[in-house]
């Protein structure tokens, strides 16, 4: 296509050249100002004046992986939102949970979703699970400047490995640090302000041979325990009908579990704890 016709169509050369299978790389050429990491970094810490998402938990089970998050976002000592969504499908076979600066995190998730979809359209196949984890690490690394000013984003990533060897667990979990460090976790993991308490809970309830229902119970109980000790983590709220958002990823793909199902699990935990306190 000639420069004249390209100009008449309204497209810049970046739109006409095949940069590669990475949408982020394409955006860096076509419109770099749209990338979160390319924007001006505040010169003072601003973490306390922006909403932050808190606790995300992920567990593997016999057949896949689960990820869940509470519904609370905080801004300093204030509750900025009681019903924020922190867990999203990354694509048909993986999920991502966000902890940190909520606005940047949600924008990063949306860009990451487009990144994976763009790769599929360009290459005609799905990126491997390791490749997905590495692409996310690159995006987190690009936000390092903002992270140093209190706008950190530290997600949790999990998915079903379509290329898993026979006999190997297909559900896998990846955690990150603010520099983009990528670490595969074994069995379970948690990020956010309540992660310490959630991990301690999972140490007692998680086992490698759990089925899907038992693993869901273990995950929801971990979030319940985190909310019991961490003020930034929201517990089940029967009055507002707010319960953790939980996704299951197995051979059928990523599916969000129904609110009624999670409410039943949370109610069961609350009833058991109430009965135990009554016996004390």
From TrEMBL:
Its EC number is 3.4.25.1. One of its GO terms (molecular function) is threonine-type endopeptidase activity. It catalyses: Cleavage of peptide bonds with very broad specificity. The formation of the proteasomal ATPase ARC-20S proteasome complex, likely via the docking of the C-termini of ARC into the intersubunit pockets in the alpha-rings, may trigger opening of the gate for substrate entry. Interconversion between the open-gate and close-gate conformations leads to a dynamic regulation of the 20S proteasome proteolysis activity. The 20S proteasome core is composed of 14 alpha and 14 beta subunits that assemble into four stacked heptameric rings, resulting in a barrel-shaped structure. The two inner rings, each composed of seven catalytic beta subunits, are sandwiched by two outer rings, each composed of seven alpha subunits. The catalytic chamber with the active sites is on the inside of the barrel. Has a gated structure, the ends of the cylinder being occluded by the N-termini of the alpha-subunits. Is capped by the proteasome-associated ATPase, ARC. Belongs to the peptidase T1B family. PANTHER family: ATP-DEPENDENT PROTEASE SUBUNIT HSLV, METALLOPROTEASE TLDD. This is Proteasome subunit beta.
